[in-house]
Amino acid sequence: MDDHLFQLNAEETNGILIVHVSGRVDSVNAEQFHSSLATTIHEPETDLPVALDFEKLDFISSAGLRTILQVAKQLGGNQQKFALFSLTASVMEIFQLSGFDRIVDIHDSRDAAIAAVSQ
Amino acid sequence: MPNEVEAKILVVDDEKDTEVLLRQRLRHEIHSKQYSFSFVPDGEQALEHLQQHDDVDIILTDLNMPVMDGMTLLEKIPDVSPNARTIMVSAYGNMDNFRVAMNHGAYDFLSKPIDFQDLKDTPGRALESLQEARESERMRSKLDVIERELNMAQILQKHILPTSFPTTDEYDVHANMVAAHSIGGDFYDLFELDRGKIGILIADVSDKGVPAAMFMMASRTLLKACAACSVSPSQVLGQVNFMLSQDNEAMTFVTLFYGIYDPETLEFKYTNAGHNPPILVLPDQEPKLLAPTGDVALGIDESLQFSEKTVTLEPGNAVVLYTDGVSEAERKGGDMFGMERFIKLAHESSFESAEQMTDIVFEQVATFVEGNEQSDDITCLVLFIPPTGSDSAVKSNSESESDSADNSRTVTFPNRLEEIRTVQNALEEFTEQNELPTDVAYHLQFALEEIVTNVISYAYKDDEEHEIKVIFTKDENSISIEVIDDGYPFDPLEEAPGMDSESSLEDRPIGGAGVALTKQMMTELKYKREGDCNHLLMIKKF
Asked: Least C-beta-crowded within 10 Å: which of A32, B53, B141, B444?
C-alpha cells in the first residue's frame, strides 16, 4: 500500500526530542501516523520533551488534528512538554479555525519551540 | 476493537497440539487481553467447566473426542451456558457433521487443519454477534428509562430560562427557545448588572439529554455567579471555563456568546467562545456579523485565556443572538435556512421591539421548514436599542449568480477508505490545472476528505462495494464539488458523529469539528436526497 505518505525523522538535541514530520496526514493514514509517532516518542528511555517540526507537513485533515490532540493529551498526562513549530500557513489556519492553536503550544521557529519545551 | 472486555474462550479437544497452536497463533490477542483461553480434553469436563464458570463467551469444540463427543456436548450447552456461542472444529471435508452441528445451534465451524486466518476471524465474528445480542438486550430495558430521562431533562431546561425581560428606554431584550424532541442543550440568560448595564448570553451544550441538562445547569449557575462579580465578558468566561474544565471527564463542552451593553457609553463588549457569530442589524445598512474573538468553547481546557471585542451600538441597532438550530433549520429535502437567508431577513424586517424581531425569526423559520420535524433546539435572543428618531428603510439587495460551467470533471471510486487517494489526486490535478490559490486548494482537499470519509464510514449498512461519484466544477469565481453516493439517507452536515455523550473527546472526530471546520471553509454546503442517492454540494467562492 502507498499509505506511507508521511515521514517521521527524529533527532535528540540537548535532551529534547525533535521529530520532523513531512508529507500528509489524513483519514487514510492517521492511525498509522499515530502509532509511528507514539513509537518514536517512546523510544528514548527517559521521557523527553517533544517538539514536532511541521515545516514539511503539506496537509493535515481533521483526522490528523485529532491525532495531534491525542498525543498532546498523552504527553500532558505524562508531564512531558510538547510543542509544534514551523507550520505552513495552510496548516496553521486549520489549527486556528479549529481553535486548537489555543490548546497546543505552537511556535514560529525551532529555537522558540526548543526554548518553550526546555523550561 | 473489542478489547475493553477480555473474551473467555473454552477449547474442548483431546489433541494436545491444538492448545500449543492456539497459544502460538493467537499470542498477540492473548497478550493484549483480547482473548483468554481454558482447555479441557472432552465434553464431560467441558460441561463441568461451564457449570463452574458462567462467563464463558465462546466454546471451540472438536467433534470426535473420548468420553463425550462434540455433538453431545453441543446439545447440552444451552442448559448450562445459554449465552455462549459454540464453534465446531473437525477434520476437513466432514460436511455432514457440520450441517448437523449448525442445526443443533452451533454458531460457526472451523475445519482442521485449522486455517490461520479463519482462526483469527471466526471467534471475532462470534464475539461480535454475542456482544450485539447482549447490547440489544440491554438497550431494550434502557429505552423507557431514557424516555423518562428526556422528559425530565426537558423540564430542567425550560425551568432555567428567564421568561420575563427587561425593557427600558435605553434597551429592550427578548428571547425565545423551542426545544427539539430529543433536547439539544441550548440556553440563554440575561443579567442586570451595576450602573444600568445588561449582560446577555446564549449557549449550546455539545451533548444531548440528561448529561447536557446537568452540564447546562452547572454552566448557568457558574455564569450567574461570575457575571455578578465582573463587567468583563472575557474575565467571566475565563473563570467559568476554568471551573467547567476541571473534572470534565466526559469532555462535554459549551459554545457560548456573552456580551455586556452599557447604555451610558453605548458600548457592547463581548466574548465569543466558539459560538455562531451574532448578527448586528443596522438601519439603512447591510447587517454585519460580530467579528469573532477567537475563543474556544468552554469546558475543554482550563488554562485558556479569553479575549473580548467592543462595538458601539446606536439607536435603532439590534444584536441578534441565535444557535445553530436557527441557521441550520431544515425543511424536507434537506434545504437549510442558512445564514444568507437569515441575514437577508434581518435586513429586510422592520420591527420596533426585541420581541417583534424574535417573533419574526421564529415565524420565518417555521414557514421555511414547512412542518418538518425539528432536530435541534431553536433559540434566539435579541437586544434592541430603541430608535430616538425615525425608522429604518427597507432595502433589498439580492445576489445573482451564473451557473454556467466552463470546466468540469467527474471521478468515481469504490467506497473504501484507501480509495480516497484516487479522488484526492484528481482534485489536486484539477486545482493545479485551474491555477487555484494554495489556501483554496487546501480548503477543498480538507472538505472533500471530511465529507467522503463520513460517507464511507456512515452511509453504508452492508458490506457490498458501492460507487461514489464526485464532480468538480469550476465557475468564474467559485469551485463546486458534488459528492454523490447510493448509501442510506445520510447527511454528513447533520449526522456526522461528534455530539454523542458516549465517547471521549479523543474518540470523536474532534467534537464534530471536522464537519464544523468544513462549514467554515466552504462558502456554501447543501445536502439533498434525490432518488436513491445522497447529494452533497460544496461551493467555495474566492
From this structure: B141
% residues pLDDT > 90 (chain B) = 26
Res. B402: pLDDT tops 60: no
Lowest-pLDDT choice from A33-42, B61-70, B204-213: B204-213
Residue B213 φ/ψ region, left for φ over 0, alpha for ψ in the -120 to 50 degree band, beta for the rest: alpha
One-letter identity of residue B371:
G
Domain of B105 in residue numbering reads as 7-135
Nearest beta carbon to residue B509 from set A26, A66, A99: A66
Q: Is residue B431 part of a domain?
A: yes
The domain boundary residue, chosen from B135, B170, B205: B135
Candidate from B9-18, B108-117, B146-155 with smallest mean pLDDT: B146-155
> In B, which residues are within 8 Å of A61 by CB distance?
445-446, 449-450, 453, 514
Q: Are residues B364 and B272 part of one domain?
A: yes
Give me the residue spans of the domains in chain A. 23-117
pLDDT tens readout for residues B223-255: 988 888 888 999 999 999 999 988 777 777 899
- Looking at the predicted structure, is the pLDDT value of residue B361 above 80? yes
Contact predicate B13/B61, CB 8 Å: yes
In a domain, B143, yes or no: no
What does the pLDDT look like over B455-464, one tens digit per residue?
998 888 888 8
Clarify whether residues B193 and B244 are in a common domain: yes
Residue B412 sits in a domain whose CATH number is 3.30.565.10
Instruction: State the total domains in chain B.
Output: 3
* pLDDT means over runs of 10, chain A (119 residues): 73 92 89 90 84 94 85 85 94 86 91 92
Shared-domain flag, residues B207 and B81: no
Nearest to A62 among B295, B438, B510 (CB): B510
Beta-carbon separation of A2 and B514 below 8 A: no
A77 touches chain B (CB under 8 A): no
Model confidence pLDDT, tens digit, residues B406-460: 478 888 888 988 888 889 988 998 898 888 888 899 999 999 999 998 899 888 8
Contacts of A59 in chain B (CB under 8 A): 442, 445-446
Which residues in chain A are contacts of B304 at CB distance < 8 A? 102-103
Query: Cβ contacts (< 8 Å) between A96 and chain B: which residues?
Result: 294
Touching check for A84 and chain B: CB below 8 Å? Answer: no
Q: Which run of H or E residues covers position B119?
A: helix B116-160
Q: Which chain B positions have a beta carbon within 8 Å of A65's beta carbon?
A: 510, 513-514
Q: Are residues B233 and B379 in the same domain?
A: yes
Give the closest-approach CA distance of B509 to chain A in angstroms: 6
Cβ count near B377 (within 10 Å): 25
Per CATH, which fold does A23-117 belong to? Transcription Regulator spoIIAA (3.30.750)
Q: What is the mean pLDDT of chain B?
A: 82
Assigned domain for B527 exists: yes
Core vs surface per residue B410-431: b (16+ CB within 10 A) or e = ebebebeeebbbbbbebbeebb
Residues B420 and B374 in one domain: no
Asked whether B301 and B295 are in contact (CB, 8 A), the reply is no
Q: Are residues B422 and B352 in the same domain?
A: no
Q: How many other CB atoms sit within 10 Å of the CB of residue B542?
A: 11
- The verdict on residue B140 lying in a domain is no
Cell numbers representing residue B369 in the block: 421548514
The amino acid sitting at A54 is F
Q: Residue B377 has what pLDDT? A: 84
Residue in chain B nearest A61 by alpha carbon: B446
pLDDT at position B232: 92
Same domain? For B111 and B241 the reply is: no
Instruction: Supply the CATH number for residue B68's domain.
Output: 3.40.50.2300
Same domain, B369 and B289: yes
State the DSSP string of B424-473.
HHHHHHHHHHTT--HHHHHHHHHHHHHHHHHHHHHS--SSS--EEEEEEE
| Predicted confidence (pLDDT) at residue B348 exceeds the cutoff of 90 | no
